[in-house]
User: What shape does this take?
Amino acid sequence: PLLNYYRRSTSGTTIDFPAINILGFAAYFISTTAFLYSPEIRRQYAERNHGLTPTVKLNDVAFAAHATICSIISMSQYFPRLWGFEDRGRRSERVSRTVMGICIGSIIGVGGVALMVATYPGQNIATGWAGIDIVYAISYVKLVVTLVKYMPQLITNYNNKSTHGWSIYQILLDLAGGFLSLGQLGIDSYIQRDWSGITGNPVKLALGNSSLLFDSMFIIQHYILYSGSGKSEHSESSPLLVEGDEAA
Assistant: This one.
């Protein structure tokens, strides 16, 4: 959002990325909040995982909330009049049908699981349908989003043969977050002396690994394939304040 604001433009980026991120991070926020604060969900988790507690921490909830807010701000920047951007000659972007289909399909999928839980509640939580399955379904929405959300921007960079207008710093931070997330998951499971802490949190495991994969692709695009292309004075490495602004 800061780079877009400084450039007064969203050119070089795609609206699909923040749009689908809102869905994914909102789903992640709901699921992590349930695992961390809902006594019933935590009880059901324990019954399925040898009496252990979920390997979800406060930082997971904080990350999801922060990312959701940032995605909403980024999404709003595709409406130039709200921010006073000078994208007058650019057609207003619309979310692609693919992303809309993923959003609608995710809602239908979660609704289907909720219907199964309500219709066929299991007598045995460890093997039957329970409220925790709804939470897992919501968390899987984030996983699906992560597996597809990077593709529009990767394709945009490929078509433009440039990464101009798109910040590499978010990818570098995401890459570091992926390593730290996997490390935290391993440490928490080690402390519990039970590796089911990893299998009991498959979304966090998959999110960390997929982030490492896609972030590596972006790094290759930015530093190897399209390095030096489309550079201008208004890049992510430019200072937010220049000398004239400071003097003012």
Remarks:
- Residues 236-242, 244-248 have pLDDT under 50 and may be disordered.
